[in-house]
Amino acid sequence: MRANLLRVSVVVAAALIVAACGGTSGTGSSSPSSGTVKAPSNLITAGTITFLSDTTYPPQESIDPATNKAVGFDVDIANAIAAKMGLTATIQTQDFSTIIPALLAKKGDAIMSAMSITPDRQKQVAFVGYFSAGQSILVKAGNPEGITGISSLCGKKVAVQVTTTEQDTLTAANGADCSSNKINIQTFPADTDAVQKLKLGAVDAAMDDSPVAAYYVKQDRTSFAIAGKPIAQAPEGIAVDPKRKDMLKAVQEAMQAIFNDGTYQKILTQWNLQDGAIPASGIVVSGNPTG
């Protein structure tokens, strides 16, 4: 999984349709409805599921500067899942580098933050699958450095958000193809900071999840382009404390319900993220379900 530096009218218009409501802190909440999935007990705040999210990752989660409300694909999925339980959804902004510790410290009920399902994360939390994304290299418009893939980044300055799978990819490259001419990996607490460094010309490239990189190019073609093809396609999941079995069960059942009734596909289409759709078989609990 951030204040959005490239928010434009198309996203604001989409936000008017299904945006979460929020306060000045960057949190957001949806409206309640009657539910078909049994709601979990011991919620952080009664009547609402508190989703922790690093809200600087459009189009999946970001803050609309016009309203200070959380908007995005992940936000809409969170709202739909909560509604199936007859609850509201609250989006609580949390830095990605501390988001799992915050969940385990009971600062939220679940994580909804474009989080890739990795073996290391599976040792700490349980996941319910909901999306799939690859990684893309974001470069300046016109690709002046002629970057074509990971090996082209050797010896170059690359910006990336800290503790992300993109950082892992760059670190792995420094132990392989770039071992003799290492990538100068520059990490930032927010993805928008990394992208801004590229826009200012302070780095040669940035790395992002493929839908996020595509979003930046779509919003500002005079500044950005994508170099090469996406790599490392992987599932993303809603993270839950494995000790909270009722929460895990409810999230999985609600995700299955929005898949079955067409809500999932509708939200994917609204955000133009159909390429990240997962099959029903992908809505599974993985990781550490027994704690």
Structural notes for this entry:
It is built from nine helices and 14 strands. The chain is α/β, with parallel strands linked by helices. The protein folds into two domains: 9-132 and 234-287, Periplasmic binding protein-like II (D-Maltodextrin-Binding Protein, domain 2), CATH 3.40.190; 135-233, D-Maltodextrin-Binding Protein, domain 2 (3-Layer(aba) Sandwich). The strands form three sheets. Strands 9, 10, 11, 12, 13 and 14 form a six-stranded mixed sheet that branches. The model is unreliable at 1-26 (pLDDT under 50).
Offer a concise description of the structure.
The chain contains nine helices and 14 strands.
Key features?
single chain, 291 residues, alpha/beta, D-Maltodextrin-Binding Protein, domain 2, 14 strands, disordered N terminus
CATH superfamily of the largest domain: Periplasmic binding protein-like II
Number of domains: 2
CA-to-CA gap between the ends? 23 Å
Beta-strand proportion: 25-35%
Helix content: 25-40%
Kindly provide the radius of gyration, computed on alpha-carbon positions and rounded to a whole number of angstroms: 18 Å
* Class from helix and strand fractions: alpha/beta
- The shape, in one word, is globular
Catalogue the unreliable spans. Answer: 1-26
User: Which CATH-level-2 architecture of the largest domain?
Assistant: 3-Layer(aba) Sandwich
Q: What's the story with the biggest beta sheet? A: 6 strands, mixed
**Count of helical stretches:** 9
> Could you tell me the number of beta strands?
14
> How do the helices and strands follow one another from N- to C-terminus?
HEEEEEEHEHEHEEHEHEHEHHE
Overall pLDDT confidence: 88
CATH class of the largest domain: Alpha Beta
CATH topology of the largest domain: D-Maltodextrin-Binding Protein, domain 2
